[in-house]
Specification:
Layout (H helix, E strand, L loop, with lengths): L4 H12 L7 H5 L2 H20 L3 H24 L5 H15 L1 H4 L7 H23 L16 H13 L8 H21 L8 H20 L4 H25 L9 H14 L5
Helix pairs in contact: 1-4, 3-4, 8-10, 9-10, 11-12
Length: 275
């Protein structure tokens, strides 16, 4: 019987890390040096999904799987755990969190099922905090600090909302955003004219962004995804402006504000709002 793909991949990883005959670059890596690549590969998976590119998705999922295999191999070398232990742990967690699928538990509604899921997660978080000797009392205790800031803001808001610290409806968040923008405007009026970011301005802009992430949560909109859409739309329109300028023999660096504005209006009319 031929080896399965995962078995071949594990053997390749073992060979790459071999102290005598492995790859010098792979041998010198650590969890810390590999972590940025792991994050990057996860984003490349998301990018392939957004582009609906099945071929790239297959390749990017392979790259991400290799990251898991790499970390598991380094852990095995330290005597911590191996790849099989990683796979077993997620298997057990999924079975544990789906008693309505793998056991005889019956939920009366989707809300009841969600509550059960969150209860399982809360117990797991408490157990993990106890194991680490961390503060298990805080509902924010295990929100990863390495998450992108906008995504982490949404998670912090969601976690705080579980214990009642939240606006009752989206209108309240929108009002809070007005308040934060007014504070930002006031600070802008006070701030000296300088290219260096001012500490108070940074704080007020952060408050506005945090509130925007919570507004997205109340509207059931992923703020991170909304910003990605805005980024793609801006890039598409800016590239269209570049094409228009080249076709007309215009030098981008010498355009006046009025010329830029005219190109932007033309580009908006020629490109779709949703990309």
């Amino acid at each position: 019987m031929s080896e399965r793909g995962i078995e071949k991949l594990l053997k390749v990883m073992e060979r790459l890390r071999d102290p005598q005959n492995g790859c010098p670059w792979d041998r010198e890596q650590t969890f810390a040096t590999i972590a940025p690549y792991t994050v990057e590969e996860a984003y490349e998976v998301a990018d392939a999904i957004e582009r609906n590119d099945a071929h790239d998705l297959k390749d990017e999922l392979g790259d991400l799987l290799f990251q898991v295999v790499f970390h598991a191999r380094m852990a095995e070398e330290r005597g911590w755990f191996d790849f099989d232990a990683v796979a077993t742990a997620i298997h057990d967690k999924l079975v544990r969190r789906h008693p309505h699928v793998f056991e005889d538990t019956v939920f009366g509604s989707r809300a009841e099922q969600t509550a059960n899921w969150e209860d399982h997660k809360a117990r797991e978080r408490a157990a993990a905090a106890d194991r680490r000797g961390a503060d298990a009392d805080s509902v924010l205790g295990d929100v990863p600090k390495a998450l992108p800031a906008l995504l982490r803001a949404a998670k912090l808001g969601k976690r705080a909302a579980r214990v009642g610290f939240d606006w009752p409806e989206a209108a309240g968040v929108r009002e809070k955003l007005n308040e934060e923008l007014a504070e930002l405007d006031a600070e802008l009026a006070r701030a000296p004219s300088t290219d260096e970011p001012q500490e108070k301005l940074v704080e007020e802009l952060g408050d506005a962004l945090f509130t925007l992430s919570n507004l997205g949560r109340h509207l059931k909109i992923d703020a991170e995804e909304a910003l990605r859409i805005a980024n793609r739309k801006f890039e598409l329109r800016f590239r269209h402006m570049e094409s228009l300028a080249r076709a007309r023999g215009l030098d981008l660096a010498t355009l006046t504000p009025a010329q830029w504005d005219a190109l932007w209006v033309e580009s908006k009319q020629a490109t779709p709002r949703k990309t």
